[in-house]
Specification:
mainly alpha; two-stranded antiparallel sheet; 2 strands
Length: about 600
Amino acid sequence: MGSFQAPPGMRSSALLETSCGYLLQELQMIWNEVGEDQSEREKVLLELEQECLEVYRRKVDRANMSRARLHQELAESEAEFTHLLLSLGERSLPGRPEKMSGTIKQQLDSITPALQEMRLRKEERVNQFRAVQGQIQKISAEIAGQSEYDDSITNVKVNENDLSLKKLEEYQNELQRLHNEKNNRLQQVEKYIAAVHNLSATLGMESSMIITKVHPSLNELCGISKNISDGILAKLNSTVESLQEEKQKRLEKLHQLGKALKNLWSLMDTSYGDRYLFSHVIDQLSVSSAEVSDPGSLTLDIIQQAEAEVKRLDQLKASKMKELFLKKQNELEEICNKSHMEIPSRSEMENILNLINTGEIDYAELLMSIDEQISRAKEEASSRKSIMEKVEKWILARDEERWLEEYSMDENRYSVSRGAHRNLRRAERARVMVNKIPALVDSLMAKTKSWEEERRKVFLYDEVPLLAMLEEYNLSRQEREEEKQRQRMKKVQSQVVVEQENFTTSRPSTSNRRLSNKSLNGGFGNASPLNRRLSLSIQQLGSNGKSSVALGTSFIKEGKKAQGKRIFPRPNFTYQLRDETASVVSTFSGPLSP
């Protein structure tokens, strides 16, 4: 018999048992035909059974291993799929069921397409991350000032554990921020470069050398991208500030030279042609540093030319300075003389003139000093104006008082002569003016004291203290009034004695006796003859008025030597004098004719 071969379609366990049964039957038939003993048969059957078990065991182990491998592949696929979902930030893949069913191979066949799609998505997302991160690193390197940067994408390390769209958006936002910062830095660099160009043109400097010195990449001729690092921006800012400071210094220097030129031109009457050569310097006086932008307006050549012109004019100024100083000195003396103030000493002025001749004095400081003196003199003269007006009124009233005293001493003042009526009218006006003198003097003293307290200095009138002059005048006036009172009393007493003697010695008639008694008892009636005699006595006292005028004149002379010594009046004596005067006037009725 040939070997048994099972049909190809029979693969089940029943077929296997049938096949084994046929084979055992065939083997029994062979053993029967051969006459094999029973022990040998049992031994062969045991070997066959062991061999079959071994084959089954190997097949089962192989099937178990294949199943385990498939389970592992399925688990790895599912784990990879889940990891890709997490890394890409997605919850699930559209079209794939949440739970899978079927055999392991069916599950593998189901997850394999979804896994391939997720792998493609990951690769695409990684490329996006790599491109964005590469741009971020490149721009960051440019901002950091790295001149050489390898922009190969392979150098970019992407974190594949987080490839979500949210993370990608964060990188894109960072990239946008860096783009904005780069643009801002480029704008700042361009702004600084433009400022350097403008300032260099104004100052007459070479801008390309200045920019290249900061960094070669800033020069467009180099053909490389501009360095926009913090250090370059700081250097550009420092360069612009230094150029602005130099511009400010030159402008201030030009302002000083322009002012000096104007002062010298005004002093020396420079012609318009010579002034026109430096008109551009004068035009800069009224502008600030920010307004100066014309190319070449602040070059060193312009400043040096202006300095040379100032130096040339300054050498010619000494001769004009003496003339100008004398002119201002005369102005100062005129102000002082007009207001009767103290005039600067001649010796001091002569010393200044000697310094001008020798050139050992600062002309500008000298002019400033004398201008300040003139300003102070004008200010003080203004503060003295109201007092000086009253002083002039007082002097005028004093002159009228002196004239009135002299006029009162003239015995022929009532005579009919040419101009007598004019003198009478003047005398009337003088009496009104003289009566106002006490109030005028009191007001003048009050204003003077207030002025001295405010200024904390003595009010001098022609180098004599004004208060001392007024007090001396009051004292002399009181002495004159006292002397007049004594003369009047003496005159009245002598007249009374004469009348009594005439009354006792003569034998008058009854009518004359009545008249005498009436004149004695009634206050002497109108007392016209007596008034005439009293006026004569006042004329005789005119000499005292002259002496008082002389006394006032001598006081002014002595006051210049005394320098501020004051003489105060005696108030008690004034009241006594007024009482005595009132008693005398009340004795005689009618006005006292001058």
